[in-house]
Amino acid sequence: MSHSEESHGEDHGFAHAMPVRTLLAVFVALVSLTCLTVWTASFSFGEFDLVLAMVIATIKATLVMMFFMHLIQDKRLNVLVFLSAFLFAALFIGFTLMDKDAYNPNIDETFSDTHSRANP
After folding, report:
1. Of the four, 41, 52, 62, 74, which is 20 to 30 A from 33 by CA?
2. How far apart are CA 89 and CA 92, in angstroms?
3. How far, rounded to the nearest angstrom, does the alpha carbon of residue 46 sit from its chain's CA centroid?
């Protein structure tokens, strides 16, 4: 008998059952955080606009990872690997944003001067 015939009839069940109340609470939290993101977009926080948006997005991503991807019930090594990848992505984006003004801080002025000389 082949392996596929032996394992075909087995019922493994649902691996990580979550209470409906928990899933609905996470859903309400995600919708609330989305509303908060839209609300904060209507105000100007200066340099903190991006930071605030990224903090809210990180909280939302954490909720999705913990509950909908079942990392809250998974092995701790998987959580560590996933969070370290998240951390390195955040570092790469952060270092890129810190370096954006290093080459030409007056790029808008340079572009408008070049554009005005090209089209007299």
Report:
1. 74
2. 5
3. 22
Rounded CA separation 78/16 (Å): 15
Amino acid code (one letter) for 86: F
Q: What is the pLDDT of residues 72-117, one digit of tens each?
A: 887 888 888 888 988 898 899 888 877 766 666 665 665 566 556 5
Radius of gyration over every alpha carbon of the chain, rounded to an integer in angstroms: 24
d(CA 90, CA 8): 43
Q: Note the pTM of the prediction, 2 decimals.
A: 0.62
**pLDDT per residue as tens digits for the range 59-72:** 999 899 888 888 88
More confident residue, 39 or 102: 39
The total of other beta-carbon atoms located within 10 Å of residue 30's CB is 16
CA–CA distance, 76 with 83 (Å, rounded to integer): 10
Q: Are 63 and 26 in contact (CB under 8 A)?
A: yes
